[in-house]
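Reminder to self: C-alpha cells first, then the designed residues, so the page reads top to bottom the way the pipeline ran.
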C-alpha cells in the first residue's frame, strides 16, 4: 500500500508545474532555452526539443542576463529607438522580428531575441545584451512563440534536454 501511495504521489508531483524564481514553467508549453556556453537556442514544444539554432549573445557574460524570463512583446519589423531607424530599413540592427523578454525588470522592449543586419555575428559574443538570430530562424521562431512563453538564459555544459528536464519543461 505504501508503495502504491508513493507512486501515486510521484505521479501527481510530476504533473505539477515547476516554480523557478517564483515563475511557473508548465510541462508541454512552448519554452526557449538560450545557452551562452555554446551560443545556441533550443525551442521546446510538446515535450520535445524541436529545434536547436545558432545565436549571438553579449560581448561579455554579464551583458546577456541569465535567468528565467517571459516573452512580453512581439513585433514585426521593429523600430530601433536608440538610433531612430524605422523597421524594415536595411540599417536596422534588429532585423525583421523582435521577441522581447522581461529581463532585469524591463517591459520586453530592452532585451530580446531578434534578427540582425549582420548575419556574420551569429555564433559570436558580440551584442550589447540581446540575442541575435539569422533571419529565417527568428521568423520561424516568431510564429511559434506566443506572448507569455518562458525563456531560460543560462551558461551550462548540460544538454538542452537535461536543462529542460531539470526545470520541468519536459519529462
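Designed residues (171 positions):
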Amino acid at each position: 500500500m505504501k508503495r502504491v501511495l508513493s507512486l501515486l504521489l510521484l505521479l501527481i508531483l510530476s504533473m505539477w508545474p515547476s516554480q523557478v524564481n517564483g515563475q511557473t514553467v508548465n510541462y508541454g508549453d512552448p519554452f526557449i532555452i538560450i545557452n551562452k556556453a555554446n551560443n545556441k537556442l533550443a525551442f521546446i514544444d510538446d515535450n520535445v526539443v524541436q529545434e536547436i539554432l545558432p545565436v549571438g549573445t553579449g560581448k561579455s557574460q554579464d551583458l546577456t542576463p541569465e535567468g528565467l524570463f517571459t516573452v512580453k512583446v512581439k513585433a514585426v519589423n521593429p523600430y530601433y529607438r536608440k538610433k531612430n531607424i524605422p523597421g524594415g530599413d536595411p540599417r536596422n540592427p534588429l532585423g525583421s522580428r523582435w521577441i522581447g523578454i522581461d529581463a532585469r525588470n524591463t517591459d520586453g522592449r530592452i532585451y530580446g531575441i531578434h534578427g540582425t543586419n549582420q548575419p556574420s555575428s551569429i555564433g559570436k559574443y558580440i551584442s550589447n545584451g540581446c540575442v541575435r538570430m539569422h533571419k529565417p530562424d527568428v521568423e520561424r521562431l516568431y510564429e511559434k512563440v506566443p506572448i507569455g512563453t518562458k525563456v531560460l538564459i543560462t551558461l551550462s555544459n548540460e544538454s538542452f534536454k537535461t536543462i529542460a528536464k531539470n526545470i520541468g519543461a519536459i519529462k
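The first helix runs from residue 2 to 15.
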